[in-house]
Design goal:
The complex is a heterodimer of chains A (about 170) and B (about 900). In chain A, about 30% of the residues are buried. Chain A is an alpha+beta fold. Helix content of chain A is about 20%, strand content about 15%. A three-stranded antiparallel sheet of chain A has the order 2-3-5. Chain A has a two-stranded antiparallel ribbon with strand order 1-4. The radius of gyration of chain A is 25 Å and the shape is elongated. The longest helix of chain A has 13 residues. In chain A, β2 and β3 form a beta hairpin. Chain B is α/β, with parallel strands linked by helices and about 900 residues long. Among the domains of chain B are: about 80 residues, Ubiquitin-like (UB roll), CATH 3.10.20.740; about 160 residues, 3-Layer(aba) Sandwich (Dimethylsulfoxide Reductase, domain 2), CATH 3.40.228; about 100 residues, Barwin-like endoglucanases (Beta Barrel), CATH 2.40.40.20. Chain B is about 25% helix and about 15% strand. Chain B contains 25 helices and 37 strands. In chain B, the strands form nine sheets. A seven-stranded mixed sheet of chain B has the order 16-15-26-25-24-17-18, with helices on both faces. In chain B, strands 33-35-34-37-32-36 form a six-stranded mixed sheet. In chain B, a hairpin with an 8-residue loop joins β3 and β4. The chains are: A alpha+beta (about 170), B alpha/beta (about 900). At the A-B interface, α2, β2, β3 and β6 of A face β6 of B. β6 of chain A pairs parallel with β6 of chain B.
Chain lengths: ~170, ~900
């Protein structure tokens, strides 16, 4: 008997506590920037695609939900010809972001991607590629890597000496 | 055997090897760069350091390079000593000071020896703060990319290219830390084996340019053991597929065949599998005989095509089958069973059929043995008679380069230089070449090895051969009227062969001359008369020429006659373009006379255009089968991927036709094993082919062997654009391999190795882990079974008919085929890179002849041979004898099948046409 009254009283007291229920979708909760939500492909500060199609995200993916094909432009810059993530399989573990050597693939705080069927959850490159740099603003892979691309020749990357003159015998 | 102590544990190793070889053979992980199992040690990179101790009381020890230290009895070393580990880590740190930050965009990434070794030594953090050295790259042709920044200066490339493969247009330049590996200027690499630099280079300086165009990581490729189909040598390969397209070919080590290297035709000739010229669905085409002139072809379902073909066979007045030397044994046998042995034609020209039959006869009825390429490498005197080996059997030419070293190596051995000490050996032998003689119709690429090269018309080559045989065995007929010079050459060749421990005669079908083959056989037989071993190596024109020859069957001319005489009006052509086998007119006549022609092929060809029904056959990477190489070794190849469309294996199509035409026994042919069993029963010579590889039901611990790497990616996304519900992986009823990544991950039996990979060894160097000893046979023996063994004969059936000397005719020339690595083969030329490097059709003359005719190189001339008239530019072919002209074999528009033949030349009055 006492416990019944005690329970009723406890519940009554809840009426005066702070509300924790959020009126989603009218009200949205705070999501930290490092939240592992919808995956995007970012661009470097110059606006070029960051993804170099190295396949490391696909290899790291524990559910094998990333498929892509590498291609190369006429100046030798690599990019994915297609890049597909099957979000109906994705477990948002973030291994792909960890594996990415160019900060191209990033997980974002967006989680609103429900669909009634699975097929629309297959995202192609057009759906994934954003116009900004995402979480990492300054990194530009090709400014560091030794490969030549358009407007960047040999020896012009960071911490590189100009190309060797093979015909010189000078020390 | 010697006992060595590694970290205080005793191990038995073979005598005469170095410590690195011994450690790797025992399964230890010792990092290395400059050492290569085929090119041995130079001690350049300092990476394979170990600590050696004087005796068990020695605790200090000293650091030595394991590749330069003999594994002699009682050697005590430590691999795990902290000091030596730190030494190795600092070595790799030096290598990495200039290595660019580009693994993600490097094609080698994921199968990079440098990555593996960096992991192995534990170097993780770059401390070097200064600027990185950079280089400009070169254009090296359509096959190789060049990225010199990645170079770690191990010298493997230049050692392979110059010392091993005999190339001259690639070298190391500059000095100190600026050394540069490349050509003196941009340009196409001239050596036939340049593609091996991809596998020889421990990092990404040289990479496969054709692979780069559809790049995929090694772990994403679906692979299976396969056999190269671009010549008769039968190199073992690993083709890789992704998204339904063949991506590349890699070498598959077979200790007795190709070992570590492939030729560029084999490595880059794969692109025909992805060609637009593929037949992908069954086609039916109304023929004039149907009275239907609406024209146009229509793709139909497989069943409809089969019903149509069954009707043709049922109502036809007789059916013949034309097989093919580029189709597997299973396919040819299925056709032979369908039409009956008496109606089965081999589909090769009359000359080719005769020559191949003769080769089989010689190898199975005489005392000389056809050597494996490993045995070719150890021959110490070589006589090449009438064959341009580099262009007809390239990897054999690479093996011959090794045999030219055997005799000079004795000098090094006398100075107690171990054979693995490469730099010292080369210093000891300098430019010395062993006895190596070439007699060929024109100058060949191996001539830098030979002291004497003799160029003559095929008949004269045969006469030289018979003269050598006479010198070896005076009971053989004397060759009359031989010039004194040639006779003394014959004497010196005979002397060298007689003095050798392991003499080798190389000949083949290249000249199109029976006499040349007979002369080669006579020499080998004369040598082995005393009961000693003499090897006789023939080249075969195509990948399954010998298999088809062993199966028998009449030549193509017989098929033409059968139709001419009205014995048959329906023909089934298996993977064969008849226009490459006989004169255009004869084929036109034949195809015009047959009422119904059915073709089973993977490519549209001039022949397939004229067929009433075309069935899409699987190319080598899409089928299982067995091929017999020029050694007589039957080897199995496995399906790499399941092709789209209605493509299936030729033997399956033929089986389906048999089932449709109510041949009940064909229902039992469920997999290649059943076909092979039927073949072995019908033709006992093929008895052994059932033992080449484990049967389809073979399992390890109940599991199949996966074609996909355990790290294979994208399973749930690859086809998600088509359907998000992942389709079930295809089943493989034909072999113990599966089209998935699930299965037995350990080391499979040697014929079933789908890729070389081992934990910590992602690069091609993982092959060490699959061999019973480094450079030795694969665990469980090298795959393949020899079908031809020499006979124990009392009376050697010597050939005694010597042809007359070649007499040049006035106003006429003898046209002989000139072979090209790039271009002479039917399918590889569909690869854009090979097409780019293949010559345009030309007329070859030697300089003197051209001057006599007053034509200069490039000038067009009218060629009249075999009733066909060509307008061809003149090209200078060194070595061609007077009265002989060369035509490039197999190039579009030039018929090889009918050469050699007499014809005439006439100048087109100064007019130069632009083709």
């Amino acid at each position: 008997m006492f416990s019944l009254i005690r329970t009723a009283w406890d519940i009554f007291l809840h009426a005066f506590r702070r509300r924790v229920t959020i009126q989603y979708p009218e009200v949205k909760s705070y999501i930290p920037p490092r939240w592992r939500g919808r995956i995007i492909l970012s661009r470097d500060p110059d606006g070029g695609e960051r993804c170099v199609a190295c396949y490391l995200c696909a290899a790291a993916c524990p559910v094998d939900c990333i498929a892509l094909q590498a291609a190369e432009d006429e100046y030798g810059r690599r990019y994915p010809a297609f890049f597909r993530i099957n979000f109906s399989r994705c477990i948002f573990c973030g291994y792909c972001e960890e594996a990415c050597p160019t900060y191209a693939i990033q997980l974002t705080p967006d989680y609103e991607m429900c669909e009634y069927t699975r097929q629309p959850l297959v995202y192609e490159k057009e759906d994934l590629l954003i116009d900004g740099t995402g979480k990492y603003h300054d990194y530009n892979y090709y400014k560091v890597a030794g490969l030549t691309i358009k407007d960047k020749g040999k020896g012009e990357a960071g911490n590189e000496a100009p190309p060797v003159d093979v015909r010189s015998l000078m020390p | 055997m010697a006992t060595i102590y590694i970290d205080n544990k005793p191990y038995e190793v073979k005598d005469g090897n170095n410590l690195l070889h011994a450690c790797l053979s025992l399964g230890f992980n010792v990092p290395y760069f400059c050492w290569h199992p085929a090119m041995h040690s130079v001690g350049a990179c300092r990476q394979c350091a170990v600590k050696q101790f004087k005796d068990e009381k020695d605790t200090r020890g000293r650091i030595v390079m394991s590749c330069m230290t003999p594994a002699s009895d009682g050697t005590r070393i430590s691999i795990d000593d902290p000091e030596v580990k730190a030494f190795r880590a600092s070595i790799i740190e030096w290598f990495m000071t200039n290595h660019p930050h580009d693994c993600p965009v490097c094609d080698e990434g994921g199968e990079c020896h440098l990555q593996d070794m960096t992991q192995m030594t534990g170097h993780v953090y770059r401390r070097f703060r200064f600027k990185k050295r950079t280089y400009n790259n070169q254009y090296l042709g359509p096959f190789l990319t060049h990225e010199m920044n990645r170079c770690i200066q191990c010298y493997r490339c230049v050692r392979f290219y110059r010392d091993y493969a005999g190339g001259r247009d690639f070298d190391v330049f500059a000095s100190h830390n600026h050394v540069y590996f490349g050509r003196h200027e941009d340009g196409v690499l001239q050596n036939e084996f340049s593609g091996n630099l991809v596998e020889v280079c421990p990092t990404g300086v040289f990479d496969d340019k054709t692979f780069n165009k559809h790049y995929t990581r090694k772990w994403d490729l679906q692979t299976a053991p396969s056999i190269c189909v671009h010549c008769g040598v039968g190199c073992n390969t690993i083709p890789g597929e992704r998204y339904g397209r063949l991506r590349r070919i890699r070498n598959r080590y077979n200790g007795e065949v190709n070992r570590y290297f492939l030729c560029d035709r084999g490595r880059y000739g794969y692109e025909f599998v992805n060609s637009d010229r593929r037949i992908r669905r069954p086609l039916l085409r109304p023929t004039p005989h149907d009275g239907d002139s609406s024209g146009g072809e229509s793709t139909v379902a497989g069943e409809e095509a089969l019903r149509h073909i069954a009707d043709l066979l049922y109502f036809g007045a007789g059916v013949i089958g034309i097989g093919s030397p580029r189709a597997s044994l299973e396919a040819n046998f299925a056709l032979r069973s369908l039409v009956g042995p008496e109606h089965f034609y081999s589909g090769t020209s009359d000359t080719d059929s005769r020559l191949v039959a003769m080769i089989i006869d010689i190898l199975s009825k005489g005392p000389a043995r056809s050597p494996s390429l490993l045995e070719v490498e150890s021959a110490d005197a070589v006589f090449v008679l009438g064959e341009d080996v580099t262009n007809t059997a390239p990897v054999l030419a690479l093996a011959l380069r090794r045999s030219a070293r055997q005799k000079p190596m004795e000098a090094a051995r006398k100075q107690h230089i171990p054979c693995w000490d490469d730099a010292a050996t080369r210093n000891a032998i300098q430019d010395a070449k062993g006895p190596f003689y070439i007699a060929a119709p024109y100058s060949t690429r191996l001539e830098d090895l030979s002291a004497h090269s003799y160029h003559a018309a095929p008949d004269d080559l045969a006469r030289l051969g018979f003269a050598v045989a006479h010198e070896l065995n005076k009971a053989l007929p004397y060759v009359e009227g031989l010039p004194e010079q040639v006779r003394s050459l014959a004497g010196s060749i005979a002397g060298a062969l007689k003095d050798a421990q392991r003499p080798l005669i190389v000949s083949g079908t290249g000249c199109g001359s029976e006499a040349v083959i007979q002369a080669a056989a006579d020499i080998a037989w004369a040598l082995s008369n005393g009961g000693r071993r003499a090897d006789l190596c023939f080249t075969a024109p195509e990948c399954n020429s010998l298999g088809l020859g062993l199966m028998g069957g009449h030549s193509l001319d017989g098929a033409f006659r059968a139709v001419q005489e009205g014995a048959a009006d329906t023909v089934i052509i298996l993977e064969n373009d008849l226009y490459r086998r006989a004169d255009e007119g004869a084929v036109n006549n034949f195809l015009g006379r047959v009422k119904h022609a059915v073709i089973i092929d993977h490519l549209t060809t001039p022949t397939s255009h004229k067929a009433e029904a075309a069935l899409p056959a699987a190319a080598f990477a899409e089928a299982d089968g067995t091929l017999v190489n020029s050694e007589g070794r039957a080897q199995r190849f496995y399906q790499v991927f399941v092709p789209e469309g209605g493509i299936q294996e030729s033997w399956r199509w033929l089986r389906d036709i048999m089932i449709t035409t109510r041949r009940a026994y064909a229902r039992e042919w469920e997999n290649p094993d059943a076909v092979m069993a039927a073949l072995a029963e019908a033709l006992p010579v093929f008895k052994q082919i059932q033992d080449i590889a484990p049967p389809a039901g073979f399992r390890i611990a109940g599991m199949k062997i996966p074609r996909q790497h355990q790290r294979y990616s994208g399973r749930t996304a690859m086809f998600a654009d088509i359907t998000v519900f992942e389709p079930r992986p295809p089943k493989d009823p034909d072999s113990p391999l599966s089209f998935t990544m699930e299965g037995y991950q350990g080391r499979p039996p040697s014929p079933l190795i789908p890729r070389f990979w081992s934990p910590g060894w992602n690069s091609v160097q993982a092959v060490n882990k699959f061999q019973s000893e480094v450079g030795g046979p694969l665990h469980g023996g090298d795959p393949g079974k020899r079908l031809l063994e020499p006979a124990e004969v009392k009376e050697i059936p010597f050939f005694k008919a010597i042809p007359g000397a070649f007499v040049s005719r006035k106003g006429e020339w003898l046209f002989i085929p000139v072979y090209h690595l790039f271009g002479s083969e039917e399918m590889s030329i569909l690869s854009p890179g090979i097409a780019e490097l293949s010559p345009r059709p030309y007329l070859g003359l030697n300089l003197e002849e051209a001057n006599n005719l007053q034509v200069s190189a490039g000038e067009e001339i009218e060629v009249n041979v075999n009733g066909a008239v060509y307008q061809l530019p003149v090209r200078h072919v060194p070595g061609l004898p007077a009265g002989v002209a060369g035509l490039p074999a197999g190039l579009p528009g030039v018929h090889k099948a009918t050469l050699p033949a007499w014809g005439s030349l006439s100048k087109t009055s100064g007019m130069v046409e632009v083709v």
